[in-house]
């Protein structure tokens, strides 16, 4: 909540102006029933038409002033809360972009999406309503009680007697509300995750006739969300009737006592009518207060979730490490890593590559190939061992500098909806020559044959491209900025053998100075690499050139023979 207060306090001047206008309008509104009582009790009995018209005119003016100031202050509060939420959402998104992979894994993507969308919306609602009702409701409540006290102290005591009961309801609601709304937001996280996964895998789901299964899964998340919402709404829906009941009991007592006092000549009918108007104002003010507490509970639950992300520590901080004298471009030294710190996903991996050399990595699924790349890109810190680039420990290299060295195609990498040129350039301001050369090396000439060429549109996630076209476009993107290090993670698997061979030749020819790490399932894709690392269950089971491994590594020989027969 402190985070939200910090954002709100930056706008304290304009907020103060809005609240002041609201204050003035509410005071004017509060005077209306009292003016009515003056007309009814002082001027109507005397048939003083002049004063009645004068006071009536004043009442019309006061109503108009109340209406105008209220509308103006409400518009101002909407603008302020919109600006605050925009900044909050911006900072939250910027923070999400800087989270370490471990933090992303622990928050989960779906939860981050709901924090960015529905949680910020809840905070927006809270800030907006607090400005609209935060001044108005207490003034109407306390002011109403004060005026009624001046008009009729005895009847006001009846009203005041029920206030502790109402306070109890409000207190209880706000305490329970935070827990219930936190649970609702968590259920929303799961619902978003389900929807995201189903959308991403819709083709597979349809192809495997798993549509009904997915619908059932979604329905269960949807039902859980509804269940949580129902609990929260039940609490909120109980609030108003409970408060109404207490107030109606009070109102009945006031009417009975009021009638008795008028009959006894202790008070006047105009005062009782004004008193009843104030009673309605107080009742509405209490409803506003209870609504405020509901929004406060919801906003607080959401603000906590937002703060969790904003206050997440910077895990991948730059560390001081003295540089080594090293002729290697990339060096892994006894690197071990585990995602859950239960068992090693990579164990004791060492290798070094000179500038321009190529490392091929091969191994069964889940053997740790992509994990090794994630460590090289410093997405995670190794548990033990170290990784150096040109003798500098990657933990001591600022992220922007580190990432500028790489051209990467991840496994299942994605393309954005938009022009082909934009997808290759990726906001880096590359020249046409760089883009053309990258397309040529990536064997992506199909782009020229498409209508519109580089200006042709790509559908979301590259849905209007074949698997092989997507991969070539992604490779062109990785090559376009002429990187020092190129990483291709299983990114030529959809290419036919001929195109794959042409790609390798073009890479060797045009990017001879670039150090390359190529993860592949096909032996033919890495056969000519300077070094090949064979992984199994996170461990090195072979390292050397193709011909060395054919002699020394049974698994490698087996894979090669299976794929290439006698051609090996
Ligand atoms: N973010 C993660 N959190 C927890 N475990 C993970 C994560 N990513 C990968 N793993 C686990 O780490 C191991 C190695 O995964 P990795 O993706 O590196 O394998 P891989 O060799 O690249 O597999 P493939 O060839 O199928 O892409 C696997 O057991 C996998 O389940």
How would you summarize the topology of this molecule?
Layout lengths: L1 H8 L2 H32 L5 H50 L2 H7 L1 H25 L2 H16 L1 H48 L1 H6 L3 H53 L5 H42 L19 E8 L8 E8 L4 E5 L6 H8 L7 E6 L2 E2 L5 H6 L1 E4 L8 E2 H6 L6 H10 L4 H4 L7 E2 L8 H13 L5 E5 L7 H14 L4 E5 L3 H4 L4 E6 L2 E6 L1 H7 L1 H11 L4
Parallel strand pairs: 3-10, 3-11, 6-9, 9-10
Antiparallel strand pairs: 1-2, 1-4, 4-5, 7-8, 11-12
Helix pairs in contact: 2-3, 2-6, 2-10, 3-5, 5-7, 5-10, 6-7, 6-10, 7-9, 7-10, 9-10, 14-16, 19-20
This protein binds adenosine-5'-triphosphate.
Report what the structure shows.
This is ABC transporter ATP-binding protein. InterPro entries: AAA+_ATPase, ABC1_TM_dom, ABC1_TM_sf, ABC_transporter-like_ATP-bd, ABC_transporter-like_CS, P-loop_NTPase, Type_1_exporter. It comes from Breznakiella homolactica. It is a multi-pass membrane protein. With 568 residues, the protein is of the alpha/beta class. It folds into 3 domains: 197 residues, ABC transporter transmembrane region fold; 86 residues; 233 residues, P-loop containing nucleotide triphosphate hydrolases (Rossmann fold, 3-Layer(aba) Sandwich). It is built from 20 helices and 12 strands. It has a 6-stranded mixed sheet with strand order 6-9-10-3-11-12, with helices on both faces. The protein has a 4-stranded antiparallel sheet with strand order 2-1-4-5, with helices on one face. Strands 7-8 form a two-stranded antiparallel sheet. Strand 1 and strand 2 form a beta hairpin. The longest helix is centred in the middle third of the chain and has 53 residues. The two termini are 65 Å apart. 35% of the residues are buried. It binds adenosine-5'-triphosphate.
